[in-house]
């Protein structure tokens, strides 16, 4: 299973802990997402998490902060509706950076495809408290619809499902034709987040 881990914090774990546990559990794609942090805090953690990702040979993506991704030579950046437009980020970063875009509809996918995105984070699958101001929930039917319209129009981009996903949801979500899963909370709420990551990777 292709898993992207999105960093978060809890009463027990820091952002850095969350990335470390996902890497120890075998995840090889980490997105540093720190919504309530200052630019300085994001940079400080980005340097540490990037170093750890390098030790594990994992891809390191930064959420929202294009200039920081360029400065640190991160592997890429993830951008949503309220962030820098993908075409502008592509001009700044060039072709060697991975750029992901958020989609909630097929029209979002079309727009990001035209702008040169490398992958789509598509969601939310269901309600989650990890993100505020959620777009409408897609459910399985939402993914089926988006994937089938992509096939009809010849849009070939990896689609990563995100939002409120737990271990038990993964087989049915993968059956809709998406390429992978991104998650955060269900790993951090597990008794043993490292074992939970391993269970997902091996599923
Ligand atoms: C893989 C992935 N998909 C979607 C998102 C959401 O990005 P965005 O819409 O910009 O919202 P924030 O994460 O910035 O709150 C994501 N980060 N990763
Ligand atoms: C960043 C993001 N975008 C849509 S839902 C979400 C949060 C994913 O985290 P969780 O797996 O805890 O719902
Ligand atoms: Mg964003």
Automatic annotation (TrEMBL):
Residue ranges that the Swiss-Prot or TrEMBL entry lists as coiled coil: none
Domain of life of the organism encoding this protein: Bacteria
Any single Gene Ontology cellular-component annotation: cytoplasm
Keywords from the UniProt entry: Magnesium, Metal-binding, Thiamine biosynthesis, Transferase
Binding site for 4-amino-2-methyl-5-(diphosphooxymethyl)pyrimidine: 31-35, 63, 102, 131
Pathway membership: Cofactor biosynthesis; thiamine diphosphate biosynthesis; thiamine phosphate from 4-amino-2-methyl-5-diphosphomethylpyrimidine and 4-methyl-5-(2-phosphoethyl)-thiazole: step 1/1
CDD domains, A to Z: TMP_TenI
Chain positions recorded as Mg(2+) binding sites: 64, 83
Domain Thiamine phosphate synthase/TenI: 4-187
Record-level Gene Ontology MF annotations: magnesium ion binding; thiamine-phosphate diphosphorylase activity
Residues annotated as binding 2-[(2R,5Z)-2-carboxy-4-methylthiazol-5(2H)-ylidene]ethyl phosphate: 128-130, 164
Cofactor binding mode and count: Binds 1 Mg(2+) ion per subunit.
InterPro entries membership: Aldolase_TIM, ThiamineP_synth_sf, ThiamineP_synth_TenI, TMP_synthase
Reactions catalysed, as given in the entry: 4-methyl-5-(2-phosphooxyethyl)-thiazole + 4-amino-2-methyl-5-(diphosphooxymethyl)pyrimidine + H(+) = thiamine phosphate + diphosphate; 2-(2-carboxy-4-methylthiazol-5-yl)ethyl phosphate + 4-amino-2-methyl-5-(diphosphooxymethyl)pyrimidine + 2 H(+) = thiamine phosphate + CO2 + diphosphate; 2-[(2R,5Z)-2-carboxy-4-methylthiazol-5(2H)-ylidene]ethyl phosphate + 4-amino-2-methyl-5-(diphosphooxymethyl)pyrimidine + 2 H(+) = thiamine phosphate + CO2 + diphosphate
GO biological process: thiamine biosynthetic process; thiamine diphosphate biosynthetic process
NCBIfam families on file: PRK00043.2-3, thiE
Function: Condenses 4-methyl-5-(beta-hydroxyethyl)thiazole monophosphate (THZ-P) and 2-methyl-4-amino-5-hydroxymethyl pyrimidine pyrophosphate (HMP-PP) to form thiamine monophosphate (TMP).
Entry's family note: Belongs to the thiamine-phosphate synthase family.
Protein name: Thiamine-phosphate synthase
Organism: Phocaeicola salanitronis (strain DSM 18170 / JCM 13657 / CCUG 60908 / BL78)
Primary gene name: thiE
């Amino acid at each position: 299973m292709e898993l992207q881990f999105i960093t978060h914090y809890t009463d027990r774990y820091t952002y850095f802990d969350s990335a470390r546990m996902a890497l120890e559990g075998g995840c090889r794609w980490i997105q540093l997402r720190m919504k309530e942090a200052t630019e300085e805090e994001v940079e400080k953690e980005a340097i540490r998490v990037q170093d750890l990702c390098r030790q594990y040979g994992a891809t390191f993506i930064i959420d929202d902060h294009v200039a920081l991704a360029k400065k640190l030579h991160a592997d890429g950046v993830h951008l949503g509706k309220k962030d820098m437009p993908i075409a502008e980020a592509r001009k700044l970063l060039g072709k060697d950076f991975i750029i992901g875009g958020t989609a909630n509809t097929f029209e979002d996918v079309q727009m990001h495809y035209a702008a040169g995105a490398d992958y789509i984070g598509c969601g939310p699958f269901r309600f989650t408290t990890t993100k505020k101001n959620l777009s409408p929930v897609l459910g399985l039917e939402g993914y089926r619809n988006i994937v089938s319209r992509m096939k009809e129009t010849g849009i070939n981009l990896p689609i990563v499902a995100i939002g409120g996903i737990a271990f038990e949801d993964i087989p049915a979500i993968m059956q809709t034709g998406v390429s992978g899963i991104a998650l955060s909370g269900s790993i951090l709420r597990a008794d043993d987040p490292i074992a939970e990551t391993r269970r997902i990777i091996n599923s």
